[in-house]
Design a protein that fits this description.
- This is Protein-disulfide isomerase.
- The chain is of the alpha+beta class.
- It has one domain: Glutaredoxin (3-Layer(aba) Sandwich), CATH 3.40.30.10.
- It contains eleven helices and six strands.
- The protein has a six-stranded mixed beta sheet.
- β1 and β2 form a beta hairpin.
- The chain is elongated.
- The protein starts with a helix and ends in an 8-residue tail after the last helix.
Length: about 250
C-alpha cells in the first residue's frame, strides 16, 4: 500500500490526543537583528489582511506578497499546539503585523492522518480568502472537532470497503465536518463535491509529504521566518522573532 493510501485509511482507530506539545526541530542559528522597517501601505481601497494568494508551494499567503518579513507556518488541523497558536496568537499576528504590509503569513498544511486530510480539503473548498478563517475556525473549536472525531472512529471501521471517491465524504459525515463547514459557508453539496475529487485530495497529502521531507519539517506547528526554521511555536516567541527581523506592530 502506498503512503498516500495509508493516509487515506490511517489513524481512524488510534486515539486522537489533545496535547499542546509539538514535535519540532532545533533552530538553525540565531536571527540577526534588523533595523525597524517602515510600514507599507496597502493598495487603495484594500487592507493587507484581506489579500490572499495561493503560492507555488500551495500555501495560502495572507498579506503583502512582497513583504520583507515572510513567516510560514506548517500546521496540522488536528494538532493541539497549532490550535493553541491560532487561539492565542493568530489574530494578533494578522492585526498587528500582517496589516502593516511588512509581514506576510503563509499557512501550509502538514497532513498527519485521514481526518486531517479531510479537514485540509474542506478548508480549501472555497475562495482562497476563506482558507485562513476556516482553518482558524477548526482550531478555535478544537475540543468540539476532536470530540466529534473520536466519536466517529467506530463508524469508520469498514472505510476500506467504501469506494475511493466516497471515502473522504464518509469521514466528513461521520466526524460532523459537513455540518461544521455548512455552518461556516460551505454547503454540504459543495463539500461533497470537493471531497469526491480523490486525486485533488490526495495531492494535498503528497505535497505535505514532499515538502516536509525537503524542508525537514518533522512536526507542527513549524514556523519558518525568511527561510530559517524557528525553535518557537507560541506567540510570544514568534512575535519576538518578527521584531528581531524588523517588524513593528501597527499603532492603535
Amino acid at each position: 500500500m502506498t503512503n498516500l493510501r495509508r493516509i487515506a485509511l490511517a489513524a481512524l482507530a488510534a486515539p486522537l490526543a489533545l496535547a499542546l506539545s509539538a514535535c519540532g526541530d532545533d533552530a538553525d542559528g540565531e536571527l540577526t537583528s534588523s533595523e525597524p522597517i517602515e510600514h507599507i501601505a496597502a493598495p487603495e481601497g484594500q487592507a493587507w489582511t484581506d489579500v490572499v494568494q495561493v503560492t507555488d508551494s500551495d500555501g495560502y499567503l495572507l498579506g503583502n506578497p512582497d513583504a520583507p518579513v515572510k513567516l510560514i507556518e506548517y500546521g496540522s488541523l488536528t494538532c493541539g499546539a497549532c490550535a493553541n497558536f491560532a487561539q492565542t496568537g493568530a489574530d494578533a499576528l494578522k492585526e498587528k503585523y500582517v496589516s502593516t504590509g511588512v509581514v506576510s503569513f503563509e499557512l501550509r498544511n502538514q497532513v498527519h492522518n485521514a481526518f486531517d486530510l479531510t479537514l485540509a480539503a474542506l478548508a480549501r473548498c472555497s475562495a482562497p480568502e476563506s482558507f485562513h478563517p476556516l482553518a482558524d475556525q477548526v482550531w478555535k473549536n478544537f475540543p468540539q472537532v476532536m470530540g466529534d472525531m473520536q466519536n466517529a472512529q467506530s463508524q469508520l471501521a469498514n472505510l476500506g470497503e467504501v469506494p475511493e471517491n466516497q471515502r473522504y465524504i464518509a469521514i466528513a459525515e461521520a466526524a460532523g465536518f459537513l455540518d461544521f463547514f455548512a455552518a461556516r459557508g460551505i454547503s454540504r453539496d459543495q463539500a461533497a463535491s470537493c471531497l469526491a475529487d480523490n486525486e485533488a485530495v490526495l495531492a494535498i497529502a503528497e505535497r505535505s509529504d514532499k515538502q516536509s521531507e525537503e524542508l525537514d519539517v518533522t512536526g507542527t506547528p513549524t514556523f519558518i521566518l525568511n527561510g530559517r526554521k524557528l525553535d518557537e511555536n507560541r506567540w510570544p516567541g514568534i512575535e519576538a522573532a518578527l521584531q528581531t527581523a524588523g517588524a513593528r506592530p501597527a499603532e492603535g
